[in-house]
Amino acid sequence: MKRTRSVLRDPAALIGGGIVLAICLAAVLAPVLAPYPQDLVAMHFGQRLRPPSALHLLGTDRVGADILTRLLFGARTTLTVAVIAVSAALAIGVPIGLVAGYWGRGLGEVLMRVSDVFLAIPQLILAIAIAETLGPALPNVILALSITYWPWFARLIYAQTLSALKEPYVDAALTIGAHPLRIMLRHVLPAVSSAIMVRTTVGLGFTILTAAALGFLGLGAPPDTPEWGRMVADSRDYLPDAWWYALAPGGAIFLLVMGFNLLGDGLRDLLDPRFAQAADTGRDA
Known about the structure:
The chain is an all-alpha fold. It has a single domain, classed as Orthogonal Bundle (MetI-like fold), CATH 1.10.3720.10. Helix content is 74%, strand content 0%.
């Protein structure tokens, strides 16, 4: 309860959570909130590049489509890609980290060297290479992001597992001859769950940024799919005159990534006793 109150008093965490919640709700309610749903497929060249007005709150794009409408449906695309990619990376990296940390030398060393190979290459460069090889499509973007992000989970859980194995209750389970799978699932995994939650939250923001970069380079969603990175790329030829064209999707990417980062910091303070204790000490002082 004390930690919860501590996070509730953290303005940054509250702001981050509010931003994420607001954008998620906007994505879910996009069919209701979008003023011109038909603009996902329709073209109105007579209204192209109109500035923000009462009819089009965020202006129109190069084909006359309402930017607010495409922004709302683009939030669905962006969040779907990020959630699936991070979930897949989580499903790959966490078991590898648990197994590597539990068995240590031998199998653990081999698994960690494999993850080091992936970590040695910058994630964006590797994602670009994979997406370029497979072709521009949302499933390929998800696959590229999953393949490049799982080592971060594996490395984190490996280190956390080594720490958890030193706890007395794990020693007791080892002493009575509990099965390794039972020890990992019943004792180690709950001990590292807080680290998983924080890494997942921060990872969502980082993955959204990487997915937007792939879309900007033309390696993400097809041209007819509303996606924030693609929208920013389409606006390049019309800057600085049509400033609203780039500002809307660029601002949305900035807000969502910032929201996840702030929320991740708040969760870290809540779930990690060391950070929570330090925060409480600072407030008391």
